[in-house]
Amino acid sequence: MTRLSLSLIVLLGGFFSPILQASDAPPIVASIEGQPLAANAARVVKALEFLGAPLPAETTKELATTLDAKDAKKIQQVLDKHVLFVVNINPESRVKVARGPAETKLQQAGYTPVVVKVVNESTVKKPLRILSPQAGTVYSGAGRQEKDPKADPKVVERFLQVEMFTAPPMTADLSGLGAEYAIALIYSSDAGKREATIGFDVGQGNQDLGFRGEVPILFEIKPAIKVGFKVLDFDGKPTVGRFTFTDAAGHVFPPQPKRLAPDLFFQKQIYRPDGGFVLLPLGEFTVEYGRGPEYRTMTQKIKVELGVNTEIRPGVFTNPPPGTPGTIPPTFDFKLLRWVNPADYGWYSGDHHIHAAGCAHYTTPSEGVLPQDMFLYVKGEGLNVGCCLTWGPCYDYQRKFFDPKPWERSEPFTILKYDVEVSGFGSQALGHVCLLNLRDQTFPGSEGTKLKGWPTWTTPLMSWAKEQGAVTGYAHSANGLGVNPPNAAKRLFAELDANKDGVITEAEAKVGRWPLPEPFAAIDADGDGKITMDELMKSTQRVNLKLPNLNIPEMNGIGAQEICVTTAMKVCDFISAMDTERTPEWNCWYHIMNCGFPLKVSGETDFPCISGSRVGQGRVYVQLGKTDMVDYAAWCKGIARGQSYVSDGYAHALEFKVNDTSPGFGDVKLDKAGPVHVTAKVAFAKDVLLGTAPGAQVPTGNTRKLELIVNGNVVASKDIPADDQSHDVAFDVNIDKSSWVALRHFPQMHTNAVTVIVAGKPLRASRESAKWCVGVIEQLWKVRKEAIKLEERADAEKTFQKAVEIYKKIAEEAEEGS
Predict the structure, then answer these.
(1) Within a 10 A sphere around the Cβ of 322, how many other Cβ atoms?
(2) Cis before 321 (ω within 30)
(3) Mean of pLDDT over the chain
């Protein structure tokens, strides 16, 4: 179909006709049986009633008689008066369309049902599609890395959304009957008089010649109602909420293809502050509303109406039409309710990895969205902090929002801060890096661009950030930490079979730099003192989904790739969690901590890349105590110190102490091996209505298993009710050597660890963990060294080897068999 908006239509016969006005009734199709047409017409009547646009009472009454009589001619005579489009499909399946006699009135911001008569001379049984050049998205470039220079800026002028109504009682396909009726839905984002070209087809290339497959229509579009919001938080203070509006047919309002910021086309919900508004048509709607996972998700039925006009004196009426002086738009009250409030315990939530451009965001009409839009999303999901990271896509446009301080319009308990993710440029092949609380976003020599000057490995990048007091960590950590068991087994076999005789002896395994996936005896199935490739392959597959496990990952992704190096060099503060698969995320973290390094975990979403559902799907809760405002620098320091836990917002460790010491507030010191007392206060939501963070399944059942973790292993557990209430728990556990202790509920929540130092000795929990780190570094160098620029490679190799030696020394210091 042509993409031109036509004011004149070329008709067969060579004459011109202006925009078609209401025409005579469509032709009656005589050769059609009454029973199937009556059934079709009855379904049309029911569908129109369902859609809130019933036929006039007199028409319905007249039609009921004809339907009972199954009189095909009279059915057409009655219904044809309400037809807006007449679609003719000739014997060759060519489609042409003409204007029917119905009025061309639409409703702004609403789906107006219109009746379509289909005269089907071909008996085709395909879906009928409605098309228009004025329909479609009002944005472009979603998922692009940069703004498309060929993007049409006029996409914002697309004011229609068109679709066929195919839900029951209607059908998705034409029946093949010689004549039948269908329903089209037409949505307009504009009000007033607007011309549009409407076309139909039943497949590619079957529109008739001479533009007869489309028809121009001048629509008269009634204005929508400006519906106001009164949004109060649980404490009665004005706030921002998230809202999803749907009608009885399941349509989401505003329609997603018509959304521009602050509304996002890839989400069903919108966010509105107290005093905000949305345009809606008259009618009834279901509103789902809340403010993130700490709040209850509730529903409310609303009816948008103007009320009854009453003449209070000659010529003066109450409830005047929309847009006239004195109109007061309807306002609906929404009171938000919490099921948990971590701030009561001093915890303040944040998502350290969200984006205002790239991935799902559009590049036209703007290169992503603005700070005020991102702030709305952050506050609307109940986050206290949103770290908006500028990265490769739209880098030049978005970097102008950077400031060493939080965004100027941040609030005491809602902060937006622009920082950097090195991704799409620089050192990305060695892992994407989140740099938080930067004072300067321009790497020396980069000249404010992403194209030059940035290092191509992450150690110098993190060192630069640490020099200015920033907090550093890796994004979407499990990307690249996955294991291909056959490949892992082959690599390990080649590494450990020192004499290349086709088997691994216990002596070879003992002196090998990389760990076996299980103890030697567990792998040696036949007990002959040798491990074959087949035995090693089976062992690798057995442990692959266990946490922890010793399989060496592929190291071929963009997650926590160089982390074993940068942690050993003391320039990496945290590993990200909650947006990739939990087992490889947490497995990597466990092994590094088992070597005695104080690596912390922080929560992220990588919005809208890994998920565009909402910011804060993965989040971190930082302990700041009772405070009058959230200080961003202190919040970031809390991440670096591990004064935090990660969660999807539906699971909380409101208190966690080992011998009265909380994570990030010092070590527990024992003179000798012995027991420690662990106390906690935890809470789990009864319903996980918004879903858990990416990389995991929503938990089911009425309880959640809370596990006490020591050096990566479960040493005790308790089942806790998922009932929206807090529960006190306690454990007593013996610590026989310097160790780390944490709480988790897989896959929803994990605390940072409390270190327990026994007899003053350093934490060396596992020799095998240290060997795992050696294997990770060597595998990474093998697969990614070519991604490091040649002039940087010698320094990188030296640093990698230094890290290997550190882990080898830690392995020697750890107990044999640990």
Answers:
(1) 15
(2) no
(3) 92
Residues 46 and 248: their CA atoms lie apart, in Å, by 13
Alpha-carbon span 818 to 516, nearest angstrom: 12
Give the tokens for residue 388.
């908006």
CA dihedral defined by 707, 712, 714, 716, rounded to 10 degrees?
-60
379-396: pLDDT as tens digits: 999 999 999 999 999 999
Whether the CB-CB separation of 299 and 287 falls below 8 Å is answered with: yes
Write the Ramachandran bin of 81: left for phi over 0, alpha for psi from -120 to 50, otherwise beta: alpha
d(CA 717, CA 195): 67
Summarize pLDDT for 151-193 with one digit per residue, the tens: 677 777 899 999 999 999 999 999 999 999 999 999 999 999 9
In 223-343, beta strands by DSSP E: 225-232, 240-246, 252-253, 270-273, 277-280, 283-290, 298-304, 311-313, 316-317, 331-335
Q: What is the pLDDT of residue 142?
A: 73
Alpha-carbon torsion (357, 362, 367, 372), positive or negative = negative
Query: Hey, is 148 helix, strand or coil?
Result: coil
Going by C-alpha positions, the residue among 124, 128, 129, 119 that lies closest to residue 176 is 124
Token pair recorded at residue 699? 């938990």
Looking at residue 293, its amino acid is: P
Is 77 within 8 Å of 141 (Cβ atoms)?
Answer: no
Those residues with Cβ within 8 angstroms of residue 65's Cβ, 6 or more apart along the chain or in another chain = none
| Cα distance between residue 641 and residue 596, in whole Å | 15
* DSSP label at residue 484: -
Has residue 310 got a pLDDT over 60? no
| Closest of 176, 59, 47 to residue 121, by C-alpha | 176
Q: What is the mean pLDDT of residues 220-244?
A: 95
pLDDT (0 to 100) of residue 416: 98
* Whether the Cβ atoms of residue 743 and residue 653 lie closer than 8 Å to each other: yes
DSSP state of 552: P
Quote the CA–CA distance of 399 and 249 in Å, as a whole number.
Answer: 43
For residue range 111-152, list pLDDT tens digits in order: 999 999 999 999 899 999 999 999 998 888 776 666 666 667
Instruction: Report how far residue 441's alpha carbon sits from residue 724's, in angstroms, rounded to the nearest whole number.
Output: 42
SS3 for 25-38 is CCCCCCCCCHHHHH
The reported pTM is 0.89
Nearest CA-CA partner of 193 in 159, 224, 218, 166:
218
Structure tokens at 526: 């036949």
User: What secondary structure does DSSP assign to 371-402, as a single string?
Assistant: HHHHHHHHHHTT-SEEEEEE-STTHHHHGGG-
Cβ–Cβ under 8 Å, residues 214 and 207: yes
In the chain, the amino acid numbered 353 is H
d(CA 164, CA 146) in angstroms, rounded, equals: 34
Q: Where are the beta strands (DSSP E) in 546-641?
A: 574-577, 600-603, 619-623
Integer Cα distance of 555 and 782 in angstroms? 9
